[in-house]
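Appendix B. Chain record.
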Amino acid sequence: MKLMLMTILVAKVAFSTPEPALEEVKAKFDEAAVQWHAIDVVNWPAYPYKPEVEFRIMHSETEIYLQYHVKENGARATFDYDAGSRPYTDDCVEFFMIPSDRDSSYFNLEMNCIGHGTFHYGPNRHERHRCGDEIVSQIRRESTLGSKAFGMREGPQEWTLTIAIPKRLYAQVDLDLTSFSGRTVRANFYKCGDDTAVPHYLSWNPIPIPKPNFHTPEHFGEIRFE
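Structure tokens predicted for this chain:
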């Protein structure tokens, strides 16, 4: 049973170039006063730890922009490369979205706290296509923790990860995905860490199932692109 359906209006912004520098993206988030949203749903009582996590999202004609802000006890970053990485074992933020009205495939972007990770798509958890470096390298990202693996850090940690995803990457499942403007799609946002000091699994939209599993498109919320 689905508990609720969260909804976000994704603001549309303009830049002077199709792929602006991430410094421009970060400035635009503030200039446009883009709203923060909490990733604070503890779906599984066996994993009660809840770091402070929020995200915001906006888009331009050519890209989708995400920014995550996290405050937590300790941080883990063991992967400083994309190919073959398992970002969900580190302190990780994720964005799952069904971009097409004509294809049930959803994309999952998973990035650890230093901005390395994976981009997959497919109709369910077991039928996934893992995009190679030629695709993932087109996703620009920058973390306030840098980009080099540091293993485990103890004590209070705070970090921000900014991500720019070219919309053309979603055309892998639907060639007509040239613009998201005016469209409503299903999506969810997550924070996790399988092998962190305190494993945790938080979501934006609730996931009312017995065991941790983010691959649940039936429990995605809605995002509406301005």
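Further analysis of this model is presented in Appendix C.
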